[in-house]
Amino acid sequence: MLNQPVSLDDLDAVILDFGGVLYDIDYDAPPKAFAALGDSDFASLYHQAAQSTWFDDLETGQLDRETFYGHLAKRCHPGTTTDQIHQAWCCILTGMPPERAALVTALGTRTRLFLLSNTNAIHAAVFEADLQASLPDASAFWGSFEQAHYSHDLGIKKPHPETFLAVCERHGLAPGRTLFLDDSIQHVEGADKAGLHAHHLDLSREDFGGWMSRMGWSF
Q: In the chain, how many domains are there?
């Protein structure tokens, strides 16, 4: 059920990815920032399609902030501060247009809505604070979701099929009546293997609003 059109009437729930689908991400920014700090090979460790075990451990809650930043500090110029490393790590997060948040709020009035994000406690604190400050009604946005699931809380992450099945089981969702949307194809393929309606958002062609319009979900 990969990228097949489906009516909201045929779904019990929608699960959305966060970074890329809803919140804009700049994967090119951290490699540039870390290069300025002395690490010219950061891109080989972390990119959209794959990443090193450090980042996997961070995103499943097995690595704390201090240890993670310690790993990165060893790759940077001597004397690089923790704040510089923090800024370089978090510059990947660029924001969410208010009109996109409004679409999410509208969708939440029509179906059970969930968030499923591969993220870490460092980034979560930054983007939650940013949305609180930048959105006209951040509480309405977050209130649209029955629950937001972060990989560092779950202890498992996309694209493993068991991640999607765990979320479905926790909320009593039938995979065949649940749609998942993500901009990373490997995550979409994992959801498809778990039996969900799995849709890939190709950000080179359309954004979340364009996808909703193409699905006929305009309200």
A: 2
